């Protein structure tokens, strides 16, 4: 199986996993990226089983609408049964690096609202220690150089993601060579730099379950 087939397998597994939890009034939070896109395509097959979705990006909203799935503004929603999204890395505690697709802030907001965060990933995303994937940090544009200097002090090598503006109108710094052996502490430290909107560590609110796709099938990891 190639990587796309593994992503499809975990996307299908996610629909099977959430389906029994859904009621006619349920809202599903939906992430961003290629794995999330496969999930949206399978989710469309059961769109009669739930009320609608909240999207973590404009791209996801467009894909959901293209399938005829109603998309709600998060402010219209009181509760969310489940949030399903991919990741760039997961460690065994299900702390994640996300934001390869620059959607980290809205992803983190939607994940915060959801009762359950289901992460879906192929086995290439599984690591013992986070940080081989450069850590994305969303930054207010005028603070870019200041935040980069502060990230250097924390031991990372920030690189400006040229030509990318987030859905919120901000820029991304990708932090290379960061040793992430204390993900929660680092998530807090980076978020406390003035000018940072948020960073791609999902450690304070890690995933509740990871559906990890490998050549031997999809494993459910808690
Ligand atoms: C987007 C994300 C994605 O979930 C992450 O980049 C994984 O993407 P893909 O499923 O395409 O491998 O965090 O901001």
UniProtKB/TrEMBL annotation:
Binding locations of substrate: 32-35, 85-88, 98-101, 125
Keyword Aminoacyl-tRNA synthetase: no
Domain of life: Bacteria
EC number(s) stated in the UniProt entry for this protein: 5.3.1.6
GO cellular component: cytosol
Any GO BP annotation: pentose-phosphate shunt, non-oxidative branch
UniProt keywords, alphabetically: Isomerase
Stated family: Belongs to the ribose 5-phosphate isomerase family.
Quaternary structure and partners: Homodimer.
Listed name of the protein: Ribose-5-phosphate isomerase A
Lineage, opening ranks: Bacteria, Pseudomonadati, Pseudomonadota, Gammaproteobacteria, Cellvibrionales
